[in-house]
Amino acid sequence: MNLTSERLLYIPVTEAEREGYMAWYTNDKVMKYITGKGLTKAQANERFAKAIESNLANPEMGLYVVKHRETNKNIGIAKLAYFNDNNTVEVGYGMMPDNWGQGYATEMLLCLMAHCRALPQIKTLVGIVKPENKASVKVLTKQGFVLDKVALSQGVEEAYYKLDL
């Protein structure tokens, strides 16, 4: 299922979108606040295969390659995934470095939030970020997300921001 926002088109990850997906996950600057560094090509391919599986299993959710509507330029990725149960959804968004600071993260988050609000079973959204990723924390909190907890995941601290719909 494609989603759209004012400037962006959200295309579910398929084989046709492999290049944009791989460029994002192998980029060291992008992955600094996710895995610490860009994934290897093998790791990114493994994640890509899981993304396709996830999209097939949950078509109302998805992992998306995000492109500019007018130029078709690859902006980044967006994510909607069930989190613990079918009432809670993890939202994720990220841009390629040359797109940072242009309001795309907020636009992506608003689009994902609107989609989730249209699904009556979804009651809560969760955004997971590294606490030092101040830009992403700001995007979440400006939309009403509040810090729920900070936890270690594979030895790395992650902050869980929550929004009840």
Question: What's the short story on this structure?
Answer:
The chain is of the alpha+beta class and 165 residues long. It has helices at residues 18-25, 28-31, 41-57, 104-117, 134-142; strands at residues 3-4, 8-12, 62-68, 74-83, 85-95, 124-129, 146-153, 156-164. The protein has five helices and eight strands.
Name of the level-1 CATH class: Alpha Beta
Distance between the termini: 22 Å
Low-confidence stretches: none
Give the biggest sheet: 8 strands, mixed
Q: What's the average pLDDT?
A: 92
Number of domains: 1
Strand content: 35-45%
CATH superfamily: Gcn5-related N-acetyltransferase (GNAT)
Number of continuous helical runs: 5
Structural class: alpha+beta
CATH topology: Aminopeptidase
Q: Using only CA atoms, what is the Rg? A: 15 Å
- Give the beta-strand count: 8
Helix content range of the residues, please?
A: 25-40%
CATH architecture classification: 3-Layer(aba) Sandwich
| Strand order of the biggest β-sheet | 1-2-3-4-5-6-8-7
Helix-strand pattern, N to C?
Answer: EEHHHEEEHEHEE
Shape: globular
GO molecular function: acyltransferase activity, transferring groups other than amino-acyl groups
Keywords: Transferase
Pfam families: Acetyltransf_3
InterPro entries: Acyl_CoA_acyltransferase (IPR016181), GNAT_dom (IPR000182), N-acetyltransferase (IPR051531)
